[in-house]
Amino acid sequence: MISISEAIAIVKQHGKPLLQNCTKSVEKAGGYILFEDVLSPINMPPFPQSAMDGYALHLHDGLNYKLVDEIKAGDHHEPKLKKGEAVRIFTGAPVPKTANAVIMQEKVTKTKTTISIAHTITPMLNIRPLGEQVKAGAVALKKGTKLTPAAIGYLISLGITKVVVYKKPDIAIITTGNELIEAGKTLTHGKIYESNSKMLLSALYNLKFYNVELYKVEDDYNATLNTLKAAIAAHDLVLITGGISVGDYDFVGKALNELRVKELFYKVKQKPGKPLFYGKKDNTQIFALPGNPAAALTCFYIYVYIALQQFMDRTTVELPRVEARSKNTFDKRGDRPQFLKGIYKNGMVELLDGQSSSMLQTFALSNALVFIPAEVSRIEIDSLVTAIVLPA
User: Fold this and answer.
1) Residues 374 and 335: beta-carbon distance below 8 Å
2) pLDDT confidence of residue 245
3) Continuous segment of H or E residues that includes residue 385
4) 378, 338, 176, 186: CA torsion to nearest 10
5) CB atoms within 10 A of CB 320
6) Distances in Å between the alpha carbon of 125 and those of 66, 99, 122, 297, 340?
7) What single string gives the DSSP state of each residue in 312-349?
8) How many CB atoms lie within 10 A of CB 47?
9) pLDDT-derived band of residue 246, with 50, 70 and 90 as boundaries?
10) Computed from CA positions of residues 299, 281, 172, 221, in that sequence, does the dihedral angle turn out positive or negative?
């Protein structure tokens, strides 16, 4: 059995960037990272554009202008203005080449055929120049940029429909146990609804990892062996829940050994989540998580999260840790470090009741895990503790 710090160090040591690419449609590329620079195919804006509703002017020495036409956004025609002439124009509409300023409508006095301005104005006022945002052939977004909703909108505004991004890992989630049935079916005596796979799937989706395949295997050695073999061969990361302990029907450890998965550690001195396995076979990383739901999710956030960030070559690979003051007391039993579910807000954290590794109700209310070191046996009100902030 190893310490938490040793286990984290081993995961960091053996994780590595995937460094593969794939092509995604822009609207489905949110959360991905650009594998290469994206060049703009067009000027943006693609024509000189009015920045507001008002009047486009061909400037002259006077303050009165003859009103000769109107241009709306999307219009194709381009009137030719003489000095002292103006056209009514709207935001986003193309400014005629013969106009050299736009004045906002609130700053003119208008008659049926003329407008008057109060004072002379500078050329190019309120005109967005051709290519002001980006020019055709220039870099629109650099390699390594994370595609946020704003980035998606920007690329689509340039007419770009596909981008080359860093491929995200292919992930398998394997659940084991004869007692597990799918939600929606009749719950008979001795059975429980299987929740770990959907819980982990949701955690992955929340982190923008979508290439996930679910497997279900009963407590049978050959079935466990064959399922693990197929999953390891087809995926970059395999998450197993249950079957890693030492019971008569826990076959995961034996199957991993037969498949020659290299054990990097097994069992961590912590609560919850002591029976945690981490290993590798070729380029596939394997985590065998405890079967108890709260323990499985805790191990996901403390260890699996690191591997996921390393796949994407991120520099920050652990969840943020902040110092907080406890709002209540807590007595820790045993000599293992413990991760407690809590609610963190404004520098304070409330330690919740119901800390059992089999219970998710408390976890459902939490937004942080509070780390209690081995040497600490009691948390007092206002004690300083370390809160690990969970993804929103």
Assistant:
1) yes
2) 67
3) strand 384-389
4) 40
5) 11
6) 19, 11, 6, 57, 60
7) TT-S--S--EEEEEESS-EE--SSS-EEEEEEEETTEE
8) 14
9) low
10) negative
Q: What is the pLDDT of residues 128-179, one digit of tens each?
A: 999 999 999 999 999 999 999 999 999 999 999 999 999 999 999 999 877 7
pLDDT reading at 180 higher than 60: yes
What SS3 state is found at 60? coil
**pLDDT tens, 60-115?**
999 999 999 999 999 999 999 999 999 999 999 999 999 999 999 999 999 999 99
Amino acid at 169: P
Rounded to 10 degrees, the C-alpha dihedral 287/291/292/294 comes to 30
Say whether 378 sits in a helix, a strand or coil.
Answer: strand
What span, in angstroms and rounded, lies between the C-alpha atoms of 60 and 84? 5
Cα 299 to Cα 233: distance, rounded to the nearest angstrom: 23
Alpha-carbon span 373 to 388, nearest angstrom? 13
Q: For residue 211, what are its two tokens?
A: 């290439």
Residue 221 corresponds to which tokens in the numbers above?
Answer: 């050695």
Residue type, 106: E
Q: φ, ψ for residue 262 (rounded to 5)?
A: -75, 120
pTM here? 0.82
Helices (H), 214-288: 221-234, 252-258
Counting every residue written for the chain, the total comes to 392
How would you classify residue 126: left for phi > 0, otherwise alpha for psi between -120 and 50, otherwise beta?
A: left
Strand order of the β-sheet with 64-71 is 101-104, 54-57, 85-89, 64-71, 114-117, 108-110
Q: CA–CA separation, 202 vs 185, rounded Å? A: 21
Asked if 296 contacts 289 with a C-beta cutoff of 8 angstroms, the reply is yes
